[in-house]
Amino acid sequence: MNLQDRAGLENLKKHPITIKEGVEYNVRMTFRVNHSIISVVKRAGMTVDKMEQMLGSYGPHPKGEAYTKNFDTEESPSGMLARSGTYQVRSRVVDDDGEVFADWEWSFKLGKDW
Q1: What is the DSSP-derived secondary structure letter of residue 82?
Q2: What is residue 26's predicted lDDT score, i.e. its pLDDT?
Q3: pLDDT (tens digit, 9 = 90+) per residue, 67-112?
Q4: Mean pLDDT confidence for 8-31
Q5: How many angstroms separate the CA atoms of 69 and 12, rounded?
Q6: Would you say residue 1 lies in a domain?
Q7: Is residue 42 predicted with pLDDT exceeding 60?
Q8: What is the pLDDT of residue 35?
């Protein structure tokens, strides 16, 4: 997801990506800021998962190069009930003072196959 591509982000919100059920995955973020990320996953109006992970503190990178952070490995839900709907996700990048640097919504669904 390119956070600078607003049209692409709007498309991800309306057209969910498909994730295979029961597989291990992790989120990777490339960034030039040093704050925390919060993702809240909701389904049918209920929060089904909340993940908050710290990016840490990073000094200026030589030549303005970006850092890459791999977050903890998770396992996607499986089963017919997990596949029965679309998951709405709101992801945010905020600092310790509550200043929001990025805030976007996207969606995914689970499938037996890709």
Answers
A1: G
A2: 82
A3: 888 888 888 888 887 778 888 888 888 877 788 888 888 888 888 8
A4: 85
A5: 22
A6: no
A7: no
A8: 53
- Domain with 48 in it: what CATH number? 2.70.50.30
89 part of a folded domain: yes
Nearest-CA neighbor of 74 among 48, 94, 55, 113?
48
3-state SS of 12-48 is HHHCCEEEECCCEECCEEEECCCCEEEEEEEECCEEE
What is the domain extent for residue 40? 6-111
- Kindly report the average pLDDT of the chain as a whole number: 79
Answer for the pair 22, 74: CB distance below 8 angstroms, yes or no. Answer: no
CA proximity to 81, closest of 10, 30, 32, 21? 21
Integer angstrom CA distances of residue 84 from 21, 22, 87, 95, 111 = 11, 14, 10, 35, 9
- 47, part of any domain: yes
Sign of CA dihedral 28, 19, 53, 90: positive
CB 90 within 8 A of CB 39: yes
